Amino acid sequence: MKNKTAAPITVYEGNYLRMVERGTWEYSERTHAGGLAAIIIAVTPQDTVLFVEQFRVPLQANTIEMPAGLVGDIHAGESIEISAIRELEEETGWTAERAEVLMIGPTSSGSSSEKIAFVRATGLTKVGEGGGDGDEDITVHEIPRTQAAAWLVQKMAEGYELDAKLWAGLWMIEHELDGSPRG
């Protein structure tokens, strides 16, 4: 009970994260953007899945991820859908006519209060090169949907770190949340 009712104590606060103690628990919180990120599930008209590759300092390794970003980090009050479309374009050079929030849940419930929204982007159009903003060095990969899982396994064997949410995203390409086939 003590952990649930203890007042939170900030033990460190930086530009983007704070460390909090609550009873015997230690965890991180985002200092801005409401603690919500969006992962964008995007399949092009050519039936390729969009993945991004970038070096992640905490892992000291290149990672393969689906495009993602903080909700409302640029424009306060921005909707999840608008943030997702903006991040998709910034990271991949593709924009979307529509974005649909599929589900929202914790990213790592034992160590962070951050939540992530899985967003399906549809009606994609290529509008630029992507690659991220000035602080990012993102490589865009367009992988045929039918080969995406095998490509991810190959990248893992090559030593890339893979965001585990990739597998949920691939499942959501093919299925509705109730498990029925999509389409």
Structure, briefly:
The chain is α+β, with helices and mostly antiparallel strands.
Structure notes:
InterPro entries: NUDIX_hydrolase-like_dom_sf, NUDIX_hydrolase_dom. Pfam families: NUDIX (PF00293). Residues 33-174 form the Nudix hydrolase domain. This protein is of the alpha+beta class and 183 residues long. The protein has two domains: 1-31; 35-174, Nucleoside Triphosphate Pyrophosphohydrolase. It contains four helices and eleven strands. It has helices at 2-5, 80-92, 148-157, 165-174; strands at residues 9-13, 17-22, 25-30, 36-42, 48-56, 61-65, 68-70, 94-106, 115-126, 139-144, 161-162. The strands form three sheets. It has a four-stranded mixed β-sheet. A four-stranded mixed β-sheet has the order 10-5-6-11, with helices on one face.
Distance between the termini: 46 Å
CATH superfamily descriptor of the largest domain: Nucleoside Triphosphate Pyrophosphohydrolase
Mean pLDDT: 92
Low-pLDDT windows of residues? none
Tell me the helix content: 10-25%
Key traits:
alpha+beta; Nucleoside Triphosphate Pyrophosphohydrolase; 2 domains; 4-stranded mixed β-sheet; globular; NUDIX_hydrolase-like_dom_sf; ADP-ribose pyrophosphatase; NUDIX_hydrolase_dom; hydrolase
Task: Please give the structural blueprint.
Blueprint (H helix, E strand, L loop, with lengths): L1 H4 L3 E5 L3 E6 L2 E6 L5 E7 L5 E9 L4 E5 L2 E3 L9 H13 L1 E13 L8 E12 L12 E6 L3 H10 L3 E2 L2 H10 L9
Parallel strand pairs: 4-9, 6-11
Antiparallel strand pairs: 1-2, 2-3, 4-7, 5-6, 5-10, 8-9
